[in-house]
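Quarterly update from the structural biology core.
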Amino acid sequence: MQDFLFTAGSFIVALAILIAVHEFGHFWVARKLGVKVLRFSIGFGRPLLRRVSPRDGAEYVLAAIPLGGYVKMLDEREGPVAPAEQHLAFNRQRLWKRVAIVIAGPVFNFLFAIFAYWAVLVSGDMGTRPLIGEVAPQSIAAEAGFAPGDELLAVADRATPTWESAVFALMAEVLDGEDLPLRVRDEEGVEQVRILDGDALAELDDDPAILSNLGLSPARPELPAIIGELTPGEPAAQAGLRPGDLVRGVDGESISLWGELVEAVQARPGRPLHLEVERGSELLDVLVVPRAIHLDDRQIGRIGAAAQIPEHLFDDYRREVRLGPIAAVGAAVSKTTDMSLLMLRVIGRMLAGKASVENLSGPISIATAAGKTASYGLVSFVKFLAVVSVSLGLINLFPIPVLDGGHLLYFAIEAVKGSPLSEQAQLQGQRIGLALLAALMTLAFYVDISRLLGG
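Predicted structure, tokenized:
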């Protein structure tokens, strides 16, 4: 229950921030261009908080349903306007002003993403060095000559100081289906360029697990088989294991690494295991029966024990990316641009039938990601907000009536024909737009629920 509340709270905070940014863009530009704002609302439905400005009478509302927001402006199409205020009505403004007001929402989303990435880069973003662990035999990476211990330095012309940047660069470049050069430093410290075959890349499915598709896995430090934390009530604690115990063997077979212990436990759900345990100067035989749990479509064993992490074990695997305030501006703009282009390319592939709708994320997936990134810390949550803000900005620019892009489409038609579309035509467009949005939301919910059910 506590995890659910944290996830829900993180989701609401994320939505409130991003909606406020988007709607503030409309609000601020409208006010600057001389349009009267009647209401600024975060959320829909029944107002939870409401304040009326004594200066101009504008309402500021926090509503009960946090799945959107709106800025209501003075407009003769929505009700009578006093002659003295007609010059303040949105519909009376010149075309360029109306375009500026409408496009301001998505623009503020992009500006927010730039600011978020800038703040992360200036404060320092801790990541993992892109060191390669295993290379799957006969994989694309193996054919290109990759070997364990290689460190990725660049994908095409994109520097990759961390695995996060490397995965992003691979996702962006692999979509081209062309030969892809990757610059690496091998275990001897020699820099080389390895080429991923474009024909092989073009045959990859659109699974977002790009590394496994290529046959690569990140290097991980080898942990000794020392018991760290124990979960009360789980088999390890019930069997009498203690933090600091060193597991030397399983059922008579010697082991030295934590991964070997995990493999043995997972392979024996519900079956007794004899652990040879070193505790101080004692050598003990401990009988433990792993509890059977279901993971995806298989049954595995679990004993409720975590590894003891030696101090400084991960030091060689960590890397901090930190830039000065000026350099971070260019990097943040570049990151936001790259993210926007990648999203557009994925959407284009989905529309062309070359990518699965499994790439869609609905409210359930977004809420889960919000809770997960918030639990990792402020930097992770801010990066999550930046990604969703870019997505929100792009979606709102789609030429679908009821979205900002739909209004821009109307304005483009008005610019060509020299007069606004008729109210009847705009009304029909709104109906079509609502139907498209309902279909898209239904599909996103379906994909979310399928993920939850393991479909």
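The mean pLDDT is 84.
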